[in-house]
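A note from the maintainers: we've had questions about how concatenated examples are separated. There is no special marker in the raw files; a new sequence line simply starts the next protein. For clarity in this README we add a label.
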Amino acid sequence: MADGIRDKVAIIGMGCTKFGELWDKGPENLMVEAFQEALADAGIEKKDIGAAWTGTCYDEVSVGKSAIPLAATLKLPFIPATRVENFCATGSEALRGACYAVASGAYDICLALGVEKLKDIGYGGLPQNEVQWGTRLRLVFPNLTPPGGFAMMGTRYFAKYGLSPQDGKHALARITVKSHKNGARNPKAHLRREVTIEEVMNAPIVAWPLGLFDCCGVSDGAAAAIVARADLAKKLRPDPVYVKSLQIAASSGEEMAFTEWDYSNVECTVRASQRAYKEAGVKNPREDISMMEVHDCFSITELVTYEDLGISARGRAREDVEAGFFDLEGTLPCQPDGGLKCFGHPIGASGLRMMYEMYKQLQGKAGPRQIKNPKLGLTHNMGGIPAVNVVSVCIVGH
C-alpha cells in the first residue's frame, strides 16, 4: 500500500533572489542567482543533479513551453528537465516533481526552480484576458478579475458569520499590518514599509471589501530548491530539512456545480491539508504546526485559509487574528517573511519562496525574523479563484 513520501526526501540547499521590480535583470539572471545560492548552500556540484523541474507561467521565460531555458541558462549536463505550470501553485508543482522523483528511487538528487518576470509582460492583476486566465476560463467568467473574485469571498464570509463591515475590514487590516511588519525585517522582500490599521482601512478600494493594501504585489523573482534522498542528506550537510508531506488538490468542478459550497471557503485547501496532515502524522495542526507561509494573494484569502487548514474554528479566525495568534511573536506565526503581500508574487517562484523561509527558519538562519525552536513548518500555495483552483500543502521539519 502506498505510504507517501514522509521523511524519504530532504531539502539540502535553497536559494532565492530579492523580489521586486527588477528592471535591470532578465529571467536568466534570476534563475542563475537563485540556482547559484542553492548550489552553494547544498555544497554539491552541477554534475550531482540527476533531474530538474522548472516552474513558470508566462511566455517571457518559456521557449515553446519547454524546460530548455532552464537547461540552457544553468548549463545543466544533458539531464532530464521538465517545465511545469499550475497557476499560482506552479513553484510547489516543481518542488513536487523533484521530491517525488527522489522518493521513487529514480534519482539521488534533483533540482526544482521557479521563476517569473511579470514586469516584462505588463501583468498587473486587474486585466481580464487570455494571458491571465486562458481563453476557456475567460469565456466562463467574462468580467472576472482576481480582486473581484476574492472580494466576493469577503462579502460572503462577512455575511455568513455576522461580521459588520467595520469588524470585517479591521480583521483584514490586522492581517496586512502583521505581514508588513514582518516584511520590513526581510531584505529580500519587495515591499518593506510598515503600515497602520488606519492606513489600510482608509486606502482606496480595489473591489470591496478589498482595498489597496489588501492585495499582494506583482513582482519579478526566482527561487530554487535542491532535494536529496533522506539517507544521503546528513552526509551532505548537518542540518537538512525533511519533507513530511506534499499534497496537491485541484478543483473537480463540484464547487460551481452544487449548492453545498457557498463561496466562504476554498475546498481544495481543506482536502489537500487533510491529506497532508495524515501523511505527516499531524493530529492537531493548531498545536503541532510551528509556523506557516500561506497564499495571501488577498487578505481575505489568508483569513479563510486559517479555517480551511483547521487552525482556527469556522467563523472564529477573526478572533485569532485580533488576539495576535498569527503574529511573529504569537503562538503560530504566519507569513514570517512578509508573505505574498510584502515579499511579492512572481507566480512561478512563490511556492518555492515560501519553502525558502520555512527552510531558513528550521535551520535557525532567519535573522531578525527567527522563530523560537520551530519543529514543523507548513506552506500553502494556491492558484486560481475560490470557485476553481489548485492548492498545494507541504509540511517540512527536522
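[label: protein 2]
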Amino acid sequence: MTSQPQVTDQQVFAPTAGVRSFSPAMLWHLLPWAIALVFFFVGDGYHSLGTNILVMILFALSLDLALGYAGIITLGHAAFFGAGAYAAGIFAIHFNADPVLGLLVATAVAGLLGLITGMLILHTRGETLLMLTLAIAAIFYEVANHARWLTGGDDGLSGIRVTPVFGLFRFDLWGKTAFLYALAVLFIWFVIAAFVVRSPFGRSLDGIRQNTKRMRAIGTPVWWRLVAMYALSAAMAGSAGALTAQSTRLVGLSTLELLTSGIVAVMLVLGGERRLYGAFIGATIYVIVQDTAGSISPFIWMFVIGFLLILIVLFFEGGLMGIIDSVVAKLKGKTAGQTGKPT
C-alpha cells in the first residue's frame, strides 16, 4: 500500500516533457481564471464584490510570498497595502488621473518602503521581527492620521479621479471595467509570483525558511534575499492597495489598521500557505462569507469566519488547499493506474 504524494506548486507549474506527462493537476492554473471570466459575464450586479475579491486575493498572495515562502513573520503588511492606496489616490488627485500610471507609482512607492523597512528590520527574527512590523504599521497609521492636509486624516482621502484605462476603457457604474482591470493586474502579479517561487532565488528562500544557519554556511546571502522578497511582497501589496483606491475612489485609515493585516493573515491560513492558489481560495471564501453573513447580521460573519478558522487549523493541515491537494493526488494516481504506470 503506497501513500499518494502531495501536489505542490512546483509540481503544478513545472514544465512537462510531453503529452504523456499530462495530469489533472495541470488544469488547476486555468481554473481560477476561467471562473473569473465566467463570473464577468454572469455576475451582473456583483462585479464590485468580485473586484474586492480580486484585490484581496492579490493582497493575500503578497503576504504568502513574505510569510509563506520566505518565512518572514509579519503582522504589519497593511502598511504597504495602505501606502499603495494613499500613493495612488494622492497621485490621481494632484498629478495624473491615469490609472495605469497611478498603479505603477503606488507599486514603486510600496516596494521602496518595503526595501527600506526590510533593510532595517530583517536582521532580526521571531518575536522581535513581529513587534517591529507592528511598530512600522503603527507609524504609517499615525503619519496618515496626522497629515490631514495630504491624506484627509480620519475623514479619508476622497475626490480621487480615474481616467479610462489606456484612454479606451472607462470605469463604469456597474464595475465591469474595474473587475477586468483588477483581474489583469492579478494575472500579471501571479505570473511573476509563480516564476519567483520556481526560480533558484525562490528555492533558496525556501531553504532559508527551513534552516537559516545552514544556508549561511553554504554562502547564501540570506539577508539580501530576504530583503528582496520583502520588497517584492510590499510592491505587490501596494498594487492591491492602489486597485482599492482606484475602484472605490476613497482611501481610509482602515487600509493601514492592524485589523487589515490580521484579516489578510486569516485569508492565507484558510486557503493555505506556500500554495499560491491558497490566496485565491482563502480570500474568496472570506469575502463571500463576510458579504453573505454580514447582510443577515453584522456579527454573524465574524462567528462563521472564526469557526472556519478553528476547523482548518485543527483538522486540515495546509488549509483548504491541503484538501484539494489530496483530491488532485488521488486523481493523478487514478490516471496513472489507468495507464499502467506505478503510483
